[in-house]
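Reviewers of the previous submission asked for a worked example of the structure-prediction workflow described in the proposal, so we include one complete record here. The input consisted solely of the amino acid sequence. No template or homolog information was supplied to the procedure at any stage.
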Amino acid sequence: MVSFLAESLLEEAGYDGEVVRLITTRDYEDLYNMSVVLQQQLEDAGVNTDMVVADWPTVTSELDSAEGWEIYIITASRMVSSASGPSALLKTPMAGPASPEMSSVSGLSSIISVLS
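From that input alone, the workflow returned the following structure tokens.
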């Protein structure tokens, strides 16, 4: 069930049901596991997601591309001096989303903050 807050944030962001792609690797299980959790939380919030799983060299190559992904978890809080939890790299319109219709992805940062 989608919460009222998530639903209103999605509406405010202009989200129309586009698929948001998370890119990850099983080469680093902690990154993969956090991606699985984030995918479930986004799905629970009403965001359509697709997880792209590839080997580490492919992931690092894809991160340089403007295509193929919208979200990538870059670290876990145990690796940095932050109590805020995992950090995610989230494409924004300024960073060049994979497609013009994905411009609403930038509004997902509010939703991800709520989910954390």
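The chain is about 35% helix and 15% strand. We consider this example representative of the routine output the project will generate in years two and three.
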